[in-house]
Structures are given as structure tokens and as C-alpha cells.
Amino acid sequence: MQTALAEFVVRRDWQQFHTPKNLAMALAGEAGELLELFQWLTPEQAAQIMHTPEQAERVRHELADVLSYLLRLADVLEVDLAAALGKRFS
Amino acid sequence: MQTALAEFVVRRDWQQFHTPKNLAMALAGEAGELLELFQWLTPEQAAQIMHTPEQAERVRHELADVLSYLLRLADVLEVDLAAALGKRFS
Amino acid sequence: MQTALAEFVVRRDWQQFHTPKNLAMALAGEAGELLELFQWLTPEQAAQIMHTPEQAERVRHELADVLSYLLRLADVLEVDLAAALGKRFS
Amino acid sequence: MQTALAEFVVRRDWQQFHTPKNLAMALAGEAGELLELFQWLTPEQAAQIMHTPEQAERVRHELADVLSYLLRLADVLEVDLAAALGKRFS
Lengths: 90, 90, 90, 90
Fold this sequence. Notes:
Chains A, B, C, D: One of its GO terms (molecular function) is nucleoside triphosphate diphosphatase activity. Four copies of one chain form a homotetramer. By secondary structure, chain A is an all-alpha fold. Chain A has one domain (2-88): MazG-like (Helix Hairpins). Chain A contains five helices and no strands. The model of chain A has no long low-confidence stretch (mean pLDDT 95). The interface between A and D is small, with 8 and 8 residues.
């Protein structure tokens, strides 16, 4: 996924914007958009969010956006995410 | 990774806390901690962050934390992250 | 400002949503929107953001949104923000 | 408050770091720390957070930090926060 994403970025000439600092901001911005999907829901409503197709689509969309910036950031910093996660939870 | 993480959570009896709303908050909180590593750095300093072992370790740690909550959130919402990412960037 | 905002909320019957947890999420969500205005700008471009009327309007809009949720959160938690700030920086 | 804070910053020679981009990041980072105080609490526990002195102190501390960066950002961008808020909610 990281390689496909890097190629996507190169095709659009976005590398110039994809500095570590900018990507950390973009990741936090997308995490904020994800928050907004849940902020006015009760815990019960939040647990049912995927049962509403339109809301489910927005959730998948935001999760993908968070993942994309996380992968980009790991890529430009040359961090092996799987190894980092394994070390953190071992 | 998602399965290993889910087992880690079950062993600690954390499922009760891992509601979609709480996990979205935790993800944004970790994205905020990642931001803090970069906020006072110039773009040039940020680009060199992995050359300082202590800072590099903190970056890997925070990236892993973001990933862990992203995987947990996808897990409890039953979202296929790879499919969501593929759809978003196709 | 806090009182005017509280009345605004009451008129719309939003108190039910304005729990501390939800307001903390809304505050972070708005801080994320503010981030998005700056994330792809160079430091030089960011320093000039108020010279573009449309961007300046968006900045004022997001700063006001952050302030509004900060005031609401302080209100429902009965925190004296000025006192808290004074104590923090004395 | 904005003036007192600006003087505090000058005394520490922090102006060089207080660019709009960096301050937007710091604001989002503090909003993330605030989130972390609430993320594992039930809505009921969150509503009682100020009844625990240690937690109450952390909440006041984080609210003050968010406010301080919001005021700094408004200061460097020359935004009149009260006017921006008034316009937003009129």
C-alpha cells in the first residue's frame, strides 16, 4: 500500500508538499474529521454508525484518509510501521 | 496486526473502553502527540528528525500508537482498511 | 461572551449535546480544521495568510469556532478561563 | 490577556517559534491533550471530572494551554477574536 500511495503522490507531483511536518498536520487534520463524525452521537448511536450507509461511507472515507497520511509519513521518515507496532505491543 | 492487537486488548479486558467514540478520541489524541514532536521544528529540522536516535524512537512510538488505534477502530467498526484505502485512491 | 454563547445554545436546544466529552471532541475537531488551512503552506505562505481575503475569512471563522467550543467547555465544567490562564503563566 | 501573553513570549525569546503554522500545530496538540483526559471516561464520569481535584487541575491546565495558543495565534495573525466570534454567532 505504501508503494502504491507513493506512486500516486509522484504522479501528482505532491512530494514537495509531503514533508514530515506537513504530513503530521494532515494526519491530525484527518483525525479531527473522523472525530467530527462521532462528536454529537451518544455512545449507543456511535456503535450503530455503520448501519447508516451514508455515515458508513464517510467513516470508511475518513479512516482511509488517516491511513493514507500515516503511510505517507512513515514512508518519508523511513519507518517500518509493522516493526514499530510490534515493538510497542510486545 | 489487527487480530494480534484485538487479542492484546482482550487479555487486558479493555474492550469495554474501546467503543468507536472513545477510539476516535484516542486516535486524535495520538495524532496530537505526533504533532507535538514536530511543532517547534523548522521544515529542515523536521526532515532530519530520524537522525537523532531519541527523537526517532519517539516518532516510531507515536506512529505505532496512531496505527494501533486506527486498527482498533477499523476492527470494532468492521471496516476493511485496505479496501477503503484502495477505493479512496483509485 | 460565555453568557451570550450559552444563551445561543439554549435557544437551539443544544445543551443535550454539549457534554464535556462531546465539547472536547468538537474543540479538537475545530483545531483540526484550523490545521488544514496551514498544512500545505510553506512557513512564508502561512505568515501571509491574512493577506488573501478569502483565506483570512476562513481563518477568522475557524478561530471563532475553536474559541466558541473552548468557552462552552469552560462553561459546562465551570472553569474560570482567565484565572486558569493567569495561574498557568505566573 | 493577549498582551500579557505576548510579553511572556518576548521575555523567553519564543517569537521565533511562534509562527502561524507552528501555533496552529501547538493549539491542535493541546486540544489533543484535552481529549486524552476524557477519552476513556463514560459520559457520566466525564460530567463529574471536576469533582476529582487532581483531574480538575489537569482540565484547568489543558484549557489554559489551549487558550494560550489560541490567543497567541490570534495575536500573530492580528485577528480580533471577540469580533470574529460575534460575527460567527450573530
